[in-house]
Write a structure and sequence with these properties.
Shape: globular
Order of helices and strands: HEHEHEEHH
Helix content: 40-55%
InterPro entries: Thioredoxin-like_sf, Thioredoxin_domain
Pfam families: Thioredoxin
Number of strands: 4
CATH topology: Glutaredoxin
Strand content: 15-25%
Protein name: Thioredoxin family protein
CATH superfamily: Glutaredoxin
Distance between the termini: 28 Å
Oligomer: single chain
Strand order of the largest sheet: 2-1-3-4
Organism: Comamonas denitrificans
Length: about 120
Amino acid sequence: MQATAETTTWYVVCLCAQWCSTCRAYAPDFLAQAGLEQVGPAERYLWVDVEAHDDLLGDWDIETFPTLLIAQGDQPVFMGVLPPQIAVLARLVQSYKNEGAAPVGVNAAVAALWQQLRPRLADAK
């Protein structure tokens, strides 16, 4: 199978809530990460307020914030809670991009969630 922009794009999705003070403090750094020069078009950072977009999550109940989902194309490689420190997130993303780190927190349910989220987030700004 030939690699395309669709299969090689990295998605970094932060699942947070507006009422969460940790999320509000983390949001500017997370969203600024998307604008960094080294990120480029093959990396998309998306912020999802779990209450404003509960229709995207279906039966998922995100209880700990921030919860991150990282995927390459249609393959999720990480889902879990990270400290709200952008340097930690940047190192994690690089470990997947450069070293092909083993998937963490990914099972059939996470894969199904990503398949549900991805088409609806692909065109998000």
